[in-house]
């Protein structure tokens, strides 16, 4: 479902990621684990079609993300580390706006907006301003914008960073529910997070893929 072949990204003469290949099967949840600056966000942005690689190719749902970004992006939901949430918009208006950006209209739009509000558990706050929500709820709104067109593939960049312990537990539970019917890549710098949520873990450091294995077998391959 997600195929990265020899992806390299350079910013000027700095190599952010170096010759990474990764394959994620349909329905699988892959964790991208690594310290700050390892290249996680760069990798996620490239898969989501928001950043061009310097070399290599990437396919999502069979579509080449570099050559056919518009088609590929229809299958991709992306939650950046700091999603642009508009503080002065209500939750409902913002999700409608996100739906329009993805080309949804009329009854179809209304259906998907209502569906996603239920799916991420925010019906109680849908009339509130985003700026008045807790970080945990804001993260749910971020997930809602990623999911509004019901994509098969979900890309979550550090989805629990900056949340308090209670919010972390709730967002992890929600991610578990959302990943049941989708293919997911999520990044984290916390091993227990990827171990509890992911079928497989890929560790990157300084732009290089170090090891890739199931959480159970990770220790053996290090
Ligand atoms: P992570 O998400 O694992 O923290 P990033 O992908 O953000 O890592 O960054 C990987 C490396 O690339 C870091 O050294 C970072 O400073 C660098 N980098 C990221 N974005 C840019 C950019 N736009 N310009 C220059 N360097 C960048
Ligand atoms: P993240 O780990 O989520 O990428 P960063 O703080 O590393 O967060 O990056 C925030 C923004 O700044 C991103 O758009 C990234 O591409 C850019 N950036 C990161 N490092 C550098 C850098 N060394 N030079 C220029 N831009 C950078």
From TrEMBL:
It is an enzyme of class 3 (hydrolase). The keyword Nucleotide-binding applies. Residues 2-222 form the ABC transporter domain. Its EC number is 3.6.3.25. The keyword Manganese does not apply. It comes from the Bacteria. Keywords: ATP-binding, Hydrolase, Nucleotide-binding, Transport. GO terms for molecular function: ATP binding; ATP hydrolysis activity. Belongs to the ABC transporter superfamily. This is Sulfate-transporting ATPase. It comes from Tepidanaerobacter acetatoxydans (strain DSM 21804 / JCM 16047 / Re1).
